[in-house]
Amino acid sequence: MNESELGISSGRSWTTRRDKKARQLAKVEKLVKGRIIPADRIVEVLENLIVTGDCVALEGNNQKQASFLSKALNNVDPDKVNDLHMIMSSVSRPEHLDIFEKGIARKLDFSYSGAQSLRMAQMIEDGVVKVGSIHTYLELYGRLFIDLTPNIALVAADKADAEGNLYTGPNTEETPTIVEATAFRDGIVIVQVNELVDELPRVDIPGSWVDFIVVADRPYQLEALFTRDPRLISEMHILMAMMTIRGIYERHNVTSLNHGVGFNTAAIELILPTYGESLGLKGKICKNWALNPHPTLIPAIESGWVESVHCFGGEVGMEKYVAARPDVFFTGRDGSLRSNRAMSQVAGQYAVDLFIGSTFQIDADGNSSTVTSGRLAGFGGAPNMGADPHGRRHATDAWLNMITGESQIARGQKLVVQMVETYQNGHAPVFVESLDAIKVGHDAKLPVAPVMIYGDDVTHVVTEEGIAYLYKARSLEERRMALAAVAGVTPIGQQCSVEMTEQLRQDGIVALPEDLHVKRTDAKRSLLAAKSIDDLVKWSDGLYEPPAKFRNW
Amino acid sequence: MSVAYLFPGQGSQKPGMLHDLPKHPIITEKFEEASVVLGEDVLALDTSEALSSTRAVQLSLLIHEVAAASLLMSEGATADIVAGHSIGAFAAAVVSGSLRFSDAVAVVELRGRLMQEAYPSGFGMGVIIGLDESRVTLLTDGINTQNTPVFIANLNAQDQITIAGTISAIEQVFTLARSAGAHKTKLLDISVPSHCRLLRSVSDEITRKMKSFILKDSNTLYIGNCRARVLRKAEEIREDLSEGVANPVRWHEATTLMFERGARLFVELGPGDTLTNLAKKAFPDTRCISAVSSGFDSARLLINREREMSNNR
Question: Whole domain around residue A162: which residue ranges?
Fold first, then answer.
């Protein structure tokens, strides 16, 4: 074969992406001042930098939003820029979907859309939004480096310097991931910053990864999402928290973990220093966490339970507290928190022993979903962490504890725990014959139903009735019965007879509170190390500064 | 996006509801305009005797709602998005700039009259609290037959659904609903089985009437009743108003859509506070007021303040 047969000198260009970027940059030369885009020219600059059909990553996760840039994108002329393919981990702000109504964007790959879930369902049904896929966070981040590499990244940072170095501080979240994927394959990185400074507290993202900076007219949107007011924790939550500590954390030696954001997991955090202490468990469980800076973890940290916490993002009001506890949190030389959503998701999936969270619906096989009829909310952080990573190799007590067979090559399993009251808000049964997610998936023509956590990954279910040790079940039928045994008087619960429950208790597959030496009458609010937000502030020595909406004293 | 106007439907009426509006030239002008269309003095419609007729109730609501909104808007306290519940949809369409007020008066007069005459006895509506749409649908589907028609009529909240049909069918659904876990079931003081296919013939007549009007594309976002979508085109709004009476009101979705589109202040324009309370419960982090009970001055202040705050989001 000669060279032309091999195609070696076919003359194809290997720099089409680079060339395109150079062309786009040239178009805005006169509109920008070096790296700086004047705020009042942002729309014009976007119209020149973005090409119809481009793949655009717009930063929005559930806490931090590139709100100045999303508004600007919503103001571009749809005749000049249209048919964009958007990548957003969280669809949160109204303009995130307005751009689809205007035709500026057409296709969407995303993870979470809780704050726009009705509109999302409607717009998919009406054909206004064409969904690529609904992803878990890690899948979406992963695909940025595979087949969804952005042409344009629109992200947010706290501060920038003249060289384009960025400080993202406690709210670093997913910014470095998006920027890396874009910058290293000749995409254009545009960053909105709250301020331009001479010297940054530290560099979170180097300037050579950044093309443009724009100083926004107001700081990026930031929501406090992981603050749970202890006043709203009920004795039911406390009962379930006691059972979980005894029946799961103590029993399996759970040292590393992730918690969801429900009041029941907040109850666990708040009774570690009281109930956990009384059981002599300090130093034995709950030492290493993949967790946002939950204010309700403060008492456990202060009483010496917690060795380390790696965070997905920040939490409004926790900045000073976190900065004052560098042994526990990951902080920079400037002292402030460094979060990283992608890294913490990896840690939460592969490196922790246990995930525990609550949900709206669980079916007979333990599949769960937070989907409400007619809404399409996608997924949050739960499905990555609420999945057993089959590729895991490193062994811990808890992981090995899940081995039930005799095989020479048996492997351990992550503990995936669902913690729910059998009825939601007193009337809607959590245990159901069929998940609403199936109909929602069908209506939106999704290839698979949007299940949050698959039943075959769930090892334990905790309710006010007791704990089902699903991993111990010897058959699918026994597994279903174990789940039914703790499902109360829901339709699913009624499938398990009293005798059957007795047998499952004897076999150690179901435990009621008394089997765990937990007295229902002991589940009192007096067990909470902090009973209010004010108490949390006191525990923190005044370092925790709750946002106004939580200051109720 | 920040301010939503909500226009209530039947059930909100109160004796004196037209007389109680502020004495203001804008309000008087609306009363006069309506009186001319009807060939009668509208101020005679809101006595308690007159309000025993569906026609007077629907006309009084429309006139009250449009007059109240016009007053607020004349002072610059405008809405970014509007929706009306059932008959309230006509006021919303007027306020959104799509339907002319005089046409609204004429078609509501027809609507009220036809509904009044449609089902003289044995029919009505009832409310079920504590079950969601899919569960109530299972129950109505189980009871609904040619002789015992019963359908979902209004989806007011996720767990507050009204049904319409024959009284006996409604009561059969109630029995099932209570055993399925509903906290409360109650017959409403309405003798017309509205918002279901039993009113198809009424809807056909309204459709005919609506065809004779010239509607415009809306200038404020308008959310329809039938599918809880934003409707911009004149033809879409015409269809929604024409079909409304024979289709369920997807109110919870309509207000959820407002919230997701950024509404953070809900202002009810009507004599009661039913919609205010529904919105408060559904969106606890928002402010919800009834312009009539909180007073037009404070409504105007709150609207202006909300608009400033929304610029900072």
Answer: 34-222
What dihedral do alpha carbons A34, A40, A44, A49 form, nearest 10°?
40
Q: Do B313 and A372 touch (CB under 8 A)?
A: no
Contact with chain B for residue A369, Cβ under 8 A: no
A394 and A522 share a domain?
A: yes
In a domain, A25, yes or no: no
Nearest to B262 among A94, A374, A436 (CB): A94
Residue-wise pLDDT for A410-432, tens only, equals: 999 999 999 999 998 757 889 99
CATH number at residue A197: 3.40.1080.10
Assess whether A151 and A288 both reside in one domain. Answer: no
**What's B3-118+198-311's CATH class?**
alpha beta
A436 touching B (Cβ < 8 Å): yes
Measured in angstroms, the CA of B275 and the nearest CA of chain A are apart by 19
pLDDT at A375 over 90: no
**Of A187, A222, A257, which residue is a domain's last?**
A222
Domains in chain B: boundaries: 3-118+198-311, 123-191
**pLDDT tens digits, residue range A169-191?**
999 999 999 999 999 999 999 99
Q: What is the pLDDT of residues A487-510, one digit of tens each?
A: 998 889 999 999 999 999 999 999
Alpha-carbon distances, residue B134 vs A402, A439, B140 (angstroms): 38, 10, 10
Pairwise CB contact (< 8 Å): B260 & A221: no
The answer to whether position A382 is within a domain reads: yes
What distance in Å separates residue A547's CA from the closest CA in chain B? 14
Q: Structurally, how many domains does chain A consist of? A: 2
Measured in whole angstroms, how far is the alpha carbon of residue A361 from the centre of its chain? 19
The distance of B181 to chain A (nearest Cα, Å) reads 7
Rg (CA), chain B: 19
Q: What is the pTM of this model?
A: 0.94
Of A178, A204, A222, the domain-final residue: A222
Closest partner CB to A373 (pick from B133, B257, B260): B133
Q: Which CATH class is domain B123-191?
A: alpha beta
φ and ψ at residue B155, rounded to 5 degrees: -105, 85
Q: What is the 3-state secondary structure (H, E, C) of B146-193?
A: CCCCEEEEEEEECCEEEEEEEHHHHHHHHHHHHHCCCCEEEECCCCCC
3-class DSSP assignment, residue A431: strand
Answer for the pair B92, B5: CB distance below 8 angstroms, yes or no.
yes
How much is the ipTM here? Answer: 0.93
Asked if the structure places residue A180 within a domain, the reply is yes
Rounded to an integer, what distance in angstroms lies between the CA atom of residue B313 and that of residue B309? 7
A27 assigned to some structural domain: no
Q: Is the pLDDT of residue A1 over 60?
A: no
Query: What type of residue sits at position A361?
Result: Q
Residues of A in contact with B152 (CB under 8 A): none
Token readout for A394 is 């490193």
Q: Are residues A212 and A300 in the same domain?
A: no
Output the six-digit token pair for A315: 């939490």
- B180 to chain A, any CB pair closer than 8 A? The answer is no
Give the chain A residue whose CA is nearest to the CA of B256.
Answer: A118
**DSSP classification of residue B227:** S
- In chain A, residues with a C-beta closer than 8 Å to the C-beta of B253 are 118, 374
The reply to whether residue A94 touches residue B132, judged by beta carbons under 8 angstroms, is no
B313 touches chain A (CB under 8 A): yes
Residue of A70, A112, A117, A119 to mutate, interface with B, max B Cβ within 10 Å: A119
Mean pLDDT of B59-77: 97
Q: Which of B289, B36, B276, B252 is nearest to B157 (CA)?
A: B252
DSSP E strands in A127-217: the ranges are 130-134, 152-160, 166-167, 188-196, 212-215
Domain identity same for A217 and A287: no
pLDDT in tens, A63-119: 899 999 999 999 999 999 999 999 999 999 999 999 999 999 999 999 999 999 999
